[in-house]
Specification:
With 127 residues, the protein is an alpha+beta fold. A hairpin with a 6-residue loop joins strand 3 and strand 4. It starts with a helix and ends with a strand. The model has no long low-confidence stretch (mean pLDDT 96). The protein is globular and about 50 Å long. The chain has three helices and eight strands. It has one domain. The strands form two sheets. Strands 3-4-1-2-5-6 form a six-stranded mixed sheet, with no helix packed on it. The protein has a two-stranded antiparallel sheet with strand order 7-8. Bound molecules: zinc ion. The site of zinc ion has 8 residues, from loops.
Length: 127
């Protein structure tokens, strides 16, 4: 069942208030990087991400090299010399409206979850 636009507006407003007031969201985002280690022993690549908004990110991602599962380092920078290739951000209201038919994604976002996008520098992926 799709959530009404009115409900999305209320949920989004409440989330924005929490983001602006709750201590969990008042964090320093400078160098807020996370490393996802590939579970494939033959690969072992680290997919590095950074948070540009305060919110929750998943424990598992995928390896950008071999597509295997990759596990979070819980914000330990395991590869200080490597640049992040993905960033986690809080989508805007339009996105919340768009995903209101998908309960899983909607609940993730409304409870402070972030989405990811590839970091593009000078028109190229940052891998
Ligand atoms: Zn891999």
């Amino acid at each position: 069942m799709k959530i009404s636009i009115r409900q999305v507006e209320r949920d989004y407003k409440a989330l924005m208030e929490r983001v602006q007031t709750l201590p969990d969201y008042q964090i320093d985002l400078t160098n807020r990087v996370n490393c996802y280690s590939c579970v494939n022993k033959k690969c072992g690549h680290i997919t590095k991400t950074k948070d540009v908004d305060a919110g929750t990110t998943p424990m598992y991602f995928w390896c950008e090299m071999c597509n295997s599962r990759a596990v979070s380092s819980f914000y330990n920078d395991l590869a200080p010399d490597q640049k992040p290739s993905y960033e986690w951000y809080r989508p805007d209201f339009q996105r919340f409206k768009k995903v209101r038919g998908n309960q899983g994604i909607y609940n993730h976002l409304i409870s402070g979850g972030l989405e990811y996008r590839q970091i593009i520098v000078d028109g190229k992926a940052n891998i």
